[in-house]
User: Which sequence fits this backbone?
């Protein structure tokens, strides 16, 4: 998935600099076989053949797509494009890329790019949602945006009025696809109500939220690496002066919290996103601080909790936390133990604060994507394990099953 923030920012800049030049958006809607990018990847181009933001390939398709933008903008109608990533690249560039996939794209005019920013806002604010692209025959368009969960969210049209020829039938099918997309975090291509209609539904997956506890050496490196990946980052410490003097990137939040202030710690923990895209890194180097935070964090359904320090210290921390939780009537379960990564990070061999931060951020990325973090050359299964045709769920039945 290409970041909507990048696309929205580039579209605004292009309109300010060259308001007379029309824009177009290409979306990768389906991949057969091997492909550098996966469905949901987008590239923004203009009618003068410029590639403005995003990517739909390793760099081999964007130029040809941009060259087609003028005709698409002039017609006012989206077109579906298919590229054989071996045969077509020989024609376009004069050499084969040794790829064996087929990429299916939609290239459409983008007269009003404001919806890109709206999609980013839904994603960044973790409001849940999805984007619907309606494919009809050899054409298509970005059709609607969902805010909220598929079962009770609100669909609103993108662009010029209501784009659904079949109205409720399209939205009903889109709702089923959105339910699956939101559950799996993967885009879904689903047959629409018409014989030649397909619905491409992409979930607005929330960014990873990383909370760094302790503004010691390396905290700024954690923040830099994580922000480069588009994560939301907050650094927490009990020392206001230390936080103020930390050279953090713009946009990184800070909070002053004492671990021995139970009410303040509980308030911060309650405000964390309690989901599978939230990670916490404990860097305080203080046993009492780490144990207080761990006792509050491990029972939560977070994706990852990492602690800096040795194996011996990690075992001591876990024993202390188990005793704290037992005193509160909470049992330390295997699931909670699995959530804890101590010592923090992958075994990359580096010892500097920046190297440790790199290994920890890489470990978080691997955990959230469910990967073992080994060498790709030794991976026996495909690098991209996207399900090409996810099985749709029944939202009503799914809600009933969850309640039971």
Assistant:
């Amino acid at each position: 998935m290409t970041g909507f923030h990048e696309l929205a920012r580039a579209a605004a800049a292009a309109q300010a600099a060259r308001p007379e030049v029309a824009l177009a958006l290409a979306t990768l809607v389906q991949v057969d076989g091997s492909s550098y990018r996966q469905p949901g990847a987008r590239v923004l181009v203009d009618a003068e053949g410029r590639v403005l933001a995003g990517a739909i390939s390793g760099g081999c398709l964007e130029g040809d797509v941009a060259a087609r933008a003028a005709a698409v903008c002039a017609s006012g109608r989206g077109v579906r494009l298919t590229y054989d990533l071996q045969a077509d690249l020989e024609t376009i560039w004069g050499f084969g890329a040794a790829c064996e996939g087929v990429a299916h794209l939609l290239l459409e005019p983008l007269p009003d790019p404001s919806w890109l920013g709206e999609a980013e806002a839904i994603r960044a604010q973790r409001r849940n949602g999805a984007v619907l692209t309606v494919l009809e025959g050899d054409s298509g368009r970005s059709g609607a945006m969902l805010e909220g969960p598929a079962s009770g969210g609100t669909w609103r049209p993108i662009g010029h009025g209501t784009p659904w020829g079949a109205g409720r039938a399209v939205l009903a099918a889109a709702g089923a696809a959105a339910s699956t997309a939101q559950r799996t975090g993967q885009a879904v291509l689903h047959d629409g109500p018409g014989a030649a209609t397909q619905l491409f539904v992409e979930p607005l997956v929330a960014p990873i939220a990383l909370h760094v506890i302790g503004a010691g050496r390396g905290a700024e490196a954690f923040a830099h690496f994580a922000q480069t990946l588009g994560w939301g980052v907050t650094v927490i410490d009990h020392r206001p002066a230390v936080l103020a003097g930390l050279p953090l990137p713009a946009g990184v939040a800070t909070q002053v919290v004492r671990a021995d202030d139970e009410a303040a710690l509980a308030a911060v923990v309650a405000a964390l996103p309690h989901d599978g895209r939230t990670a916490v890194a404990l860097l305080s180097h203080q046993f009492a601080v780490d144990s207080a935070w761990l006792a509050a964090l491990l029972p939560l359904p977070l994706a990852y909790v990492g602690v800096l320090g040795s194996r011996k210290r990690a075992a001591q921390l876990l024993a202390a936390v188990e005793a704290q939780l037992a005193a509160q009537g909470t049992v330390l379960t295997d699931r909670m133990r699995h959530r804890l990564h101590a010592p923090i990070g992958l075994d990359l061999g580096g010892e500097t604060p920046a190297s440790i931060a790199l290994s920890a951020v890489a470990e978080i990325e691997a955990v959230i994507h469910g990967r073992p973090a080994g060498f790709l050359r030794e991976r026996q299964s495909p690098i991209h394990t996207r399900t090409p045709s996810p099985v749709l769920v029944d939202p009503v039945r799914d809600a009933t099953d969850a309640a039971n």
Remarks:
- Confidence is low (pLDDT under 50) at residues 89-98, 387-404.
- The chain has 14 helices and 16 strands.
- The longest helix spans residues 168-184.
